[in-house]
Amino acid sequence: MKCRSCRAPAVIDVRRHNAGFCHACFVRHCREQVQRSIKAFDMIRPGERVLVAVSGGKDSLALWDILLDTGIATDGLYLGLGIGEYSDESGRYARAYAARRGARLVEVDLPATFGYDIPTGSAAARRAPCSACGLSKRHLFNQAGLEGGYDVVATGHNLDDEAAVLFGNVLRWDLAYLGRQYPVLPAGEGFVRKIKPLVRLSERETAAYCVLQGIDYIVDECPMSAGNRHLGYKEALNEIEARSPGSKAAFYFGFLDRVAPMVAGVAEEERQALHECPGCGAPTVSDVCAFCKLVERAGGHL
Ligand code: Q46
Ligand code: ZN
C-alpha cells in the first residue's frame, strides 16, 4: 500500500478514510484532524491558556504532543487516583513526557489532598469505581483549570470513546446526557471551557501516532475498568466498524450535525438551574455538589 499523499510506502492504513499514510504524512493527518476540530468547534482562541488532562495513556499524550507541536501553549495536569501500581506507572509516563518536552506538569494527588483513593473511596461511597473516578476527574479538572487561570481544559477523548458514550446515551435515550455530549462545553459561572480535540481520531490512530513519534505511554488497562459498561459498547461498535468501515464516524458526526442541536436546550435548562455548592463553590443543581458528597463518604477510609 502506498501513502495517499506522497505515494511513499505506507506504514498505516486508515480504513475509515480508505487511505494509507507514510510516517510523515500520518503525523500531518493527525495534526490536521485536531486542527480541524479546534476550528470547527471554536475550541481554542488565539492567546488562550490551555490545560491538558494527562493520564500517561496514548490519547492524552498524543493530544499534548500535537498541541505543543502546533504552537498552542499548554501545560499538563496529572491527577493521582491512587489505583495502586497502575497509578504509579501512569504518573511516571506523564512526568517523563513532560520532562522530555520541557513542559510544565501540574499534579494533584487525590489520596493526599482529599483522603481517599478510587478503590477504597468508591467502595466506601457505594459507587462503581468508574463512576466515582469520573466524578472526581470532572470536578478536579475544572477546579485546576479555574485555580490556575486557564481558559480551557482539554481531554484526550477520541472518536471511539465518544461513539461508545453516545451509544450508551442513545440506548437509554438519556436526553440530559445527550444534551451535554458535545466536543466543546462552554465556560460559565464556575466552569472553564472543556474541549475534546481528538474526536476526529480513533484509538488506533492515537496509538500509532505515539508509536511512530517515539512517545512512551502506559499500555496496561486500568485494573478497575472491568465492569465498565463502555467497554461493551466499544466492542459492539468495533464489530460494526469491522463490517462497514466508517460507521462509527457516521454515527457520531451524524449525531453532532443533526441531533445535538435538537437536544442542546436540555443542557441549557440545566445550566440555568445551577447554583454554588456551599462546600466547595462548584456549580451544582443539588444542595451540596456530588463531589463534596463523595469526599464526605469516601474520605478517611485510607
Ligand atoms: S481510570 Fe477511572 Fe478510567 Fe480506571 S477507574 Fe474507571 S474511569 S477505568 S478512564
Ligand atoms: Zn461541592
Blueprint of the fold:
Elements: E1 12-14, E2 19-21, H1 23-40, E3 50-53, H2 58-69, E4 74-80, H3 84-101, E5 105-109, H4 110-114, H5 118-124, H6 129-147, E6 152-154, H7 159-171, H8 175-180, E7 184-185, E8 193-195, H9 203-213, H10 229-243, H11 247-272, E9 275-276, E10 283-284, H12 290-298
Parallel strand pairs: 3-4, 3-6, 4-5, 6-8
Antiparallel strand pairs: 1-2, 7-8, 9-10
Helix pairs in contact: 1-9, 2-9, 5-6, 5-12, 7-10, 7-11
The structure holds Fe4 H S5 and zinc ion.
The site of Fe4 H S5 (Q46) has 9 residues, from helix 6.
Span of the ends, CA to CA: 55 Å
Question: What is the N-to-C order of secondary-structure elements (H for helix, E for strand)?
Answer: EEHEHEHEHHHEHHEEHHHEEH
- Structure summary, number of beta strands: 10
Tally of alpha and pi helices: 12
Bound molecules: Fe4 H S5, zinc ion
* Overall tally of structural domains: 1
Under CATH, the homologous superfamily reads: HUPs
Proportion of beta-strand residues: 5-15%
**Spatial strand order of the main sheet:** 5-4-3-6-8-7
CATH architecture descriptor: 3-Layer(aba) Sandwich
Structural class, judged by helices and strands?
alpha/beta
Arithmetic mean pLDDT: 95
Low-pLDDT segments, ≥5 res: none
* Share of residues in helices: 40-55%
Give the biggest sheet. Answer: 6 strands, mixed
Instruction: Report the principal-axis shape.
Output: globular
CATH topology: Rossmann fold
> What is the level 1 CATH name?
Alpha Beta
